Amino acid sequence: MRMVDLIQKKRDGEELTAEEIQFIVEGYTDGSIPDYQISSLLMAIYFKGMTAAELADLTMAMVASGDQIDLSAIEGVKVDKHSTGGVGDTTTLVLGPLVAAAGVPVAKMSGRGLGHTGGTIDKLESIEGFHVEITSDEFIELVNKNKIAVVGQTGNLTPADKKLYALRDVTGTVNSIPLIASSIMSKKIAAGADAIVLDVKTGAGALVKTLEDSRALAQAMVNIGNNVGRKTMAVISDMSQPLGFAIGNALEVREAIDTLKGEGPEDLTELCLVLGSHMVYAAGLAESLEDARQMLLKVINNGEALEKFRVFIEAQGGDGSIVDDPSKLPQAAYKFELPAKEEGYVAEIIADHVGTAAMWLGAGRATKDSEIDLAVGLMLNKKIGDHVNAGDSLVTIYSNREEISQVKEELYKSIILAKEAVAPPVLVHQEITKE
Ligand code: URA
Ligand code: CA
Description:
This protein is α/β, with parallel strands linked by helices. The protein has 16 helices and 13 strands. It has helices spanning 3-11, 18-29, 35-48, 52-64, 91-101, 120-124, 136-146, 159-169, 177-190, 211-227, 249-260, 266-282, 289-301, 304-315, 351-361, 405-414; strands at residues 79-83, 106-110, 148-152, 195-202, 231-238, 246-248, 334-339, 344-349, 377-380, 387-388, 393-399, 415-418, 428-432. The strands form four sheets. A four-stranded mixed β-sheet has the order 1-4-5-13, sandwiched between helices. A four-stranded antiparallel β-sheet has the order 6-9-11-7. It has a three-stranded antiparallel β-sheet with strand order 10-8-12. Strand 4 (195-202), helix 10 (211-227) and strand 5 (231-238) form a beta-alpha-beta unit. The longest helix is centred in the middle third of the chain and has 17 residues, at 211-227. The structure holds uracil and calcium ion. Residues 165, 179-180, 183-184, 207 line the site of uracil (URA).
């Protein structure tokens, strides 16, 4: 096989076979096919797209390029959740203990990553003593015993995706629905999930901004998963403003505790119930989505969801008493308010600017080696549709620095007020299951 022929084939809009796709992915991973030919192919895919069969083949070729996690020693249907990202998304912290309390085995492998705030592991590490350096035997044992454990990234998962993603980043081909869909799904499948629930964000703060593109991405991922034998469904949810109130590591842990007690922000709670219901249903533990939702409401109301969070924290060396007393979490030295300059209705909260402000406070990593300040962050006091009077606090800022004029300026840019009343955005746009 010659790579140049395969590039021309894709350029002309023809379908690549499974063998051809395997040849490409293997050749790129082992270095026998150079960057310039793959760059050209990626651009052809960007313009010509991929068929459902090509997408399944590309995904599985990337899975086969590295290690695959074997979770077969864990009892039950392992359901993983993936979110396409956004600002202040506290859902993972809530959903783990929530669905585990309902009986779903949560075997979470998580990373640190770059971003406005840390990854799930950084957030959990704001709890004194909590650690994710456990062996794979301990990990499996904990999931069987408690239904939930989190381990740091181990093994060499999907090296082909790592290499392709880096190349896409410098060749203008990140924003391609087939390439995003196969990239995300390859990682989930390699991590061993039997079933996958996807939270595809849409709106200004999301990777994919329009509802039409979000639908196409969600459908592509649902098709890939189901075509390769993993039950997969997607929820398209709003990211036209940050989810919940908290943006920051310890602040989000506190928000997760509130939500597990049934006292969390309305939007975060509702999204966790929607995603959680799909997880419980996919695990085969409920007859219907409505039954699954009732199971989740029950464990919130009877305290089992919060208790599960405590058991999970303590099993991994953390101080479980933070669930009763969140003031034991890291605290920032200074607290500032951001007063509204005029009366009006909140029309927009531009998530990207809010994220940048959180980053400047030190809540996130700009480069792989930056240190995160777990205590700092933002609490939104108003959301889209709320009425504000001049002088009302829009945001409470938790900082370890006294000088934050740049942060305040960025936040003023992010919150747009209107004279007329504004309707709050729709939270869940669509739920997509098999075609
Ligand atoms: N996240 C991924 O993992 N891959 C993409 O291609 C885009 C976002
Ligand atoms: Ca939040």
